[in-house]
Design goal:
binds zinc ion; globular; disordered N terminus; 3-stranded mixed beta sheet; 9 helices; alpha/beta; 4-stranded mixed beta sheet
Amino acid sequence: MAMAVPMAITLLFAIVLAGGVVSSAEFSYIEYNTTQRIVPGKINVHLVPHSHDDVGWLKTVDQYYFGGNNTIRGACVQNVLDSVISALLEDKNRKFIYVEMAFFQRWWRQQSNAKKIKVKELVNSGQLEFINGGMCMHDEATPHYIDLIDQTTLGHKYIKDEFDQIPRVGWQIDPFGHSAVQAYLLGAELGFDSLFFARIDYQDRAKRLKEKTLEVVWQGSKSLGSSSQIFTGIFPRHYDPPDGFTFEINDVSPPIQDDVLLFDYNVQERVNDFVAAALAQIGYCSFYVPISIRATQI
Ligand SMILES: [Zn+2]
């Protein structure tokens, strides 16, 4: 079931970091091993680098995209896309999943043809993947279901027309509450092979944590039964990275300082922190340890 994780980057972060430790006092450029593979018999940690760019929440959509009105919320989605795409182009081992087509379309329109060709290569190679793929990550309770269908159709048609791709993962990580329509109609029937979300009732989460039932096969339609069921993963808490591993601007997580000449060199300490976070999570997951790495303006 590990492969059900979208864009699973299976790498043992601890090992990667440990590989950077050098014994001599000299320090030079370290090429980290960021390749991915499943290691049998070990806890395989899936780092999931993803967007979560609200298409309007505290600011207008334009303000979110261009970084206006930042006193309300520091958010500039065009910077997210600029920096993510540039990072992907620098290293083919890096991967990213992008979700909100309303923002991606805006960004795409402003790119040169040369850049577009490079980005299409990223998509074709799987370095950049579109998941969910609607114009936004819709709420599942208050909008009429026609709106859910329309906005998802718009986004998926755009991805198909421009990149000839079909999203295969549902990524409803921020909506409050989840409907059966999402599971069968906007999940399985849409062609998704998995669905992930974060928010559930706190008592339900507590029960599932205890019983290790955060991963389920959800039958969203009684009449369609198993023909429209979908593998569903619920995050153990929210969609944030583990404590101490949030590296957004103004966050207070200690940076990983891997230059041995630094007084504050802290690779071993940070490796230990990460291993502890992974072990804590495996305590209540059945199949995999997904760890969210969010590049986002929420
Ligand atoms: Zn949100």
